[in-house]
């Protein structure tokens, strides 16, 4: 297998038609084996970075919207407050630092909450067959005793 050729998956490659004809084709999925060296892998990773493509699909990233909005609002607030008593340079440093701290913190908390919810759903899915499984009991029921 060549490590330079990316594998692509599209909705047209499946034998069944897609549910929605207006659905956009799936994004290209890259699957490249490791080059064997750390710096070779880093070089391959940087080749795949596309700011335009990544930012156009940011709404598909779980928790990104809430964390970015929280970070922006916090950064602006702290920047304005620090700007009242310090220079613009100091205030902008505080604003960027606050943005990064709040964004990373809210994204981490959101991801942890999603993982906990995924675990709870998995537990429920595993428990449902046990709950409705019929037991093979030959003991007489309480209704037959009263008759």
From TrEMBL:
InterPro entries: Cox20. GO terms for biological process: mitochondrial respiratory chain complex IV assembly. Pfam families: Cox20. It comes from the Eukaryota. Residues 1-26 are annotated as: Disordered. One of its GO terms (cellular component) is mitochondrial inner membrane. The chain crosses the membrane at residues 91-110. This is Cytochrome c oxidase assembly protein COX20, mitochondrial. It comes from Trametes cubensis. The lineage of its organism: Eukaryota, Fungi, Dikarya, Basidiomycota, Agaricomycotina.
């Amino acid at each position: 297998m060549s490590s330079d050729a990316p594998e692509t998956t599209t909705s047209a490659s499946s034998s069944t038609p897609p549910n929605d004809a207006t659905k956009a084709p799936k994004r290209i999925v890259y699957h490249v084996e490791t080059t064997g060296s750390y710096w070779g892998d880093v070089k391959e990773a940087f080749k795949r970075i596309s700011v335009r493509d990544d930012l156009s699909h940011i709404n598909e990233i779980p928790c990104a919207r809430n964390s970015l909005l929280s970070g922006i609002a916090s950064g602006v607030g702290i920047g304005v407050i620090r700007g009242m008593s310090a220079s613009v340079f100091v205030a902008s440093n505080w604003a960027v630092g606050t943005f990064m701290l709040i964004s990373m913190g809210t994204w981490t908390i959101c991801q942890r909450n999603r993982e906990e919810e995924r675990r709870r759903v998995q537990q429920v899915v595993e428990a449902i067959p046990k709950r409705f499984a019929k037991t093979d009991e030959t003991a007489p029921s309480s209704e037959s005793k009263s008759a």
